[in-house]
Amino acid sequence: MLVLNNIEVMFDKVILILKGVSFEVPSGQIVTLLGANGAGKTTTLKAISGLLRPDRGEVTKGSVEFEGKRIDKLNSPDIVKLGITQVLEGRRVFEHLNSEENLIAGAHTRSDSAAVRKDLDLVYGYFPNLRIRRKVRAGYLSGGEQQMMAIGRAFMATPKLMLLDEPSLGLAPLLTEEIFEILVRMNANEKMTLLLVEQNATMALHIAQYGYIMENGRVVLDGDSQTLSDNEDVREFYLGLTEIGKKSYRDVKHYKRRKRWLS
Fold first, then answer.
1. Which regions of the chain carry the CATH code 3.40.50.300?
2. Is the pLDDT of residue 245 over 50?
3. Residue 188 and residue 191: Cα distance in Å, rounded?
4. Does residue 166 contact residue 198 with C-beta atoms inside 8 Å?
5. Domain 2-83+159-252 carries which CATH code?
6. What is the mean predicted confidence (pLDDT) over 30-53?
7. SS3 helix, strand, coil % of the chain, rounded to 5?
8. How do strand 161-165 and strand 84-87 relate by DSSP bridges?
9. What are the Cα distances from residue 65, in Å, to 6, 62, 86, 103?
10. In this prediction, what percent of the chain has a pLDDT beyond 70?
11. How many C-beta atoms lie closer than 10 Å to residue 126's C-beta?
């Protein structure tokens, strides 16, 4: 469904952030991007969704293809119409609107009001608390409710591919588990493909079929979830299973870097 081929991203025409990033996301799967802060994960999502330009960034090399069509030169509204939505880090709700108004705002590209209402009921089925709190201003919702609303708002655009940037950020473990269970259900029931950026590597690898690890603007390791979970470096630095005597990431890192794809 989605193919990134050797993309490079620069900001202000001088700051190189992504350095030949290549990966693919098959239709119907959950794929996760892991890596430390500053590795380039959020920039990668914005390169897909067309949100680089507001940050004065651009894809300067390589290509992003969605269902066989190149999209890296399109603006974000056109990318949404193709079937890609992004749940931004930090939720970004419209605080002065109530919960239901926020959800309906996600359907701004749609004209069939009956279908919009049907999908709104579907969102309430996944997130019952939002139905109860539908008339409450978004700014007064809890962090967990705001995250649910942000996911529901993205769902209202009827995406084929949903990009999620740190959906567990600032949430309690039990609430994180609940939201991830709902994402799994959405993936299964709605046949919606998910690309997930997440600091909680344990949870991400638990629900994803495949994963990529980024470091300093490059993808340095990839594999199915079980392979990554069994990798010694991944276990130590992303899953918290530290072995005695290992002091730094540089000292223990032993995997071979992925070869860049050829365009």
1. 2-83+159-252
2. no
3. 5
4. yes
5. 3.40.50.300
6. 94
7. 40, 25, 35
8. parallel
9. 12, 10, 16, 28
10. 91
11. 18
